[in-house]
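Sample intake sheet
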Amino acid sequence: MVTPWKKTKAYELGIIDEKGKVLIKSRQIKNATQRNAYTLLIRFVFNLKRMLQKIGLGGRFGTY
């Protein structure tokens, strides 16, 4: 939750964009490196972080 989108492994591998939007669906990931960078737990945290940003808590609270 505290890591900016651009510093995540999923961003570096092109799975998500700079706002956290998913570019490659989890079903379409075939590479083991990409699969390890986008696990079920990580997807849950990313979804929670995106929801916090939508309701306005994505500033200091969502990234601290």
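Comment: The helical segments are 9-12, 32-37, 40-54, 60-63. The first helix runs from residue 9 to 12.
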